[in-house]
Design goal:
2 copies of one chain form a homodimer. The first copy, chain A, is of the alpha/beta class. Helix content of chain A is about 35%, strand content about 25%. Chain A is globular, with a radius of gyration of 17 Å. The first copy, chain A, has a single domain, classed as Alpha/beta knot. In chain A, strands 3-2-1-5-4-6 form a 6-stranded parallel beta sheet, sandwiched between helices. Chain A has a two-stranded antiparallel ribbon with strand order 7-8. Chain A is built from 6 helices and 8 strands; from the N terminus they run E-H-E-H-E-H-E-H-E-H-E-H-E-E. The interface between A and B is large, with 55 and 55 residues.
């Protein structure tokens, strides 16, 4: 059970990056994303809509106070992993983290409250270089699952891609009424 | 030698996602990113500035006509890999692609010209799910390098992170004058 906590979301400014975080969370095998920061109904609907069409299980939550959410998950036995370029290299930390079955993975936006570094069980870096929380999340989940997430099947999918060498092929996998 | 070609960049609207593509390209071991679409000096300076401070080699180019750039690279012996959710799964395609030493990796923005699917030597998917070109690029490069890019050293870096379990530590690795 992997849950992503995206903190510090800012309405409009972060819309696309937060959307990408949500879609990456789902595609790479997390069960849920929780957004904190400014409430953004459009963002949540957009990601929820993808889960509805492409399958799950995956859901989207909002929690205004990130710290409350983080502590509640800790209490329930989740290991808190904060992704940051300043942390322990993922290739080192993963040996221990992979043994934990309940993870709360925290991904920040531009500015992260310093407190997070103390509250996290692990501060983990994916390269010690500046790049992208979206990329860091994807590579972290990819490493955690040892690449098995790449061929994950999603339950209840209405749409499924049939891989092609050239071009696009999408099939509808359940009958559904059209408007 | 890996070069990234980011097509269809739109000024302002794509600024942050294109920045993330550029930073991921550098952090995960590409040598260059070429932007196509609308010219965006701020975007290019921003990524160039990261390479200047954090080391390289890495450079940022602009080419208004993506097709011209793609064909020129093909002529120089580059294998063209187009990342798309509709393509052959990366875990299958990588066995062949990894043998190629000169890659042009094409990452689109929201809409991709259909011609790309024909021009590419390989259309490759990182999961067959909708998510993020930033994540797809990172995982593709991570797979190509078998994770070795995670500990890559960057030449001429002025700043370097010393990984910490808690908190941040950045050192200046060359003497430099301050304004």
């Amino acid at each position: 059970m992997i849950i992503i906590l995206r903190i510090g979301h800012r309405y409009e400014r972060d819309e696309r990056l937060s959307t990408h975080c949500g879609l990456v969370a789902r595609a790479f095998g997390a069960r849920r994303i929780i957004f904190s920061g400014e409430h953004d109904a459009k963002l949540m609907e957009s990601i929820g809509g993808v889960a509805e069409r492409w399958g799950g299980p995956f859901d989207v939550h909002y929690e205004g106070q990130w710290k409350k959410s983080l502590l509640a998950h800790k209490k329930k036995g989740f290991t808190v992993v904060h992704l940051t370029m300043y942390g322990t290299p993922v290739q080192k930390a993963m040996r221990i983290i992979r043994k934990r079955k309940k993870l709360l993975v925290v991904v920040g936006s531009e500015k992260v409250p310093p407190e997070i570094y103390q509250l996290a069980d692990f501060n983990v870096s994916v390269t010690s270089q500046p790049h992208s929380e979206v990329a860091a999340l994807a590579v972290f989940l990819h490493e955690y699952h040892k690449g098995k997430e790449l061929s994950k099947r999603f339950r209840g999918a209405k749409l499924r891609i049939v891989p092609q060498e050239k071009g696009k092929k999408v099939i509808e996998t359940r009958s559904r009424k059209r408007a």
